[in-house]
Amino acid sequence: MFSVLVALVGVAVFDPLSACHHTEYPASGGQCCPMCQKGTVVGRDCTAESGTRCVPCATGTYMNQENGLKRCFSCSTCDPVLGLFAKQDCKSTSDAVCDVLSGFFCKSLTDSTGCSTAEKHSVCKPGERIKQPGTSRHDAVCEACQQGSFSTDGVNCTLWTKCSENQTPVQDGSFTADVVCSSGSSRHRYFLSLPFVCFLILCLVLSRVLCGDVNKCLL
Predict the structure, then answer these.
(1) Cβ contacts of residue 145 below 8 Å, gap of 6+?
(2) Which residues pair with 128 in a beta bridge?
(3) Which helix (H) or strand (E) holds 56?
(4) What class is the 78-120 domain?
(5) DSSP-assigned letters across all residues of 135-197
(6) What is the pTM of this model?
(7) Is pLDDT larger for residue 9 or for residue 24?
(8) Residue 165: CB partners within 8 Å, gap ≥ 6?
(9) 10-74 has which CATH code?
(10) What is the distance between the alpha carbons of residues 29 and 25, in angstroms, rounded to a whole number?
(11) In the predicted model, what is the mean pLDDT of residues 91-96?
(12) N or C, which end of the chain is more exposed by having fewer CB within 10 Å?
């Protein structure tokens, strides 16, 4: 048991990670080298004669912390094709921050890089209406029209038209189409003139029966 404790203490003492100061990093040779500042990475480890040689991050890369790394991080891409734009451009010391274009909402959001994936707002279908418009953080919410109303564009629901007393419905309403009404005035005129036509026919028949010749009766 005592030997195990000695071994653990020995590891803790001689572990290069624990031996280095928090502003240093363990180099390949076992020595502790000063870390590079933000915006730079290690170009060459320190030696007994010289300190760490740091090099700046190239365009399209960044380093946002003090480090002992050999390579900078790649900048995030805010691709408009994917519904993103750069709210904040990438710099040598910080990554790009992306946000969503109009008509999209963010599906994956982080504090450091903003939105990483976006999706188009849902489009409501005919027979539905927009219950809740889409935002940059939430999708649009659709709901079906209630009975007695319709929607042709999937935006708003409109109540069916009510035919007047002088009209008759020739097409029933549905969730995607309105009621179609037809004016009944011509039909009414037809039925009003029918008795008069029947009276004329009856007169002609009686005249032929009684006079034998319509022309003679007229004379």
Answers:
(1) 127, 128, 129, 151, 157, 175
(2) 144
(3) strand 53-56
(4) mainly beta
(5) -SSS--EEEEPPTTEE-SSSS--EEPPPP-TTEEEEE---SSS--EEEE-HHHHHHHHHHHHH
(6) 0.62
(7) 24
(8) none
(9) 2.10.50.10
(10) 11
(11) 96
(12) N
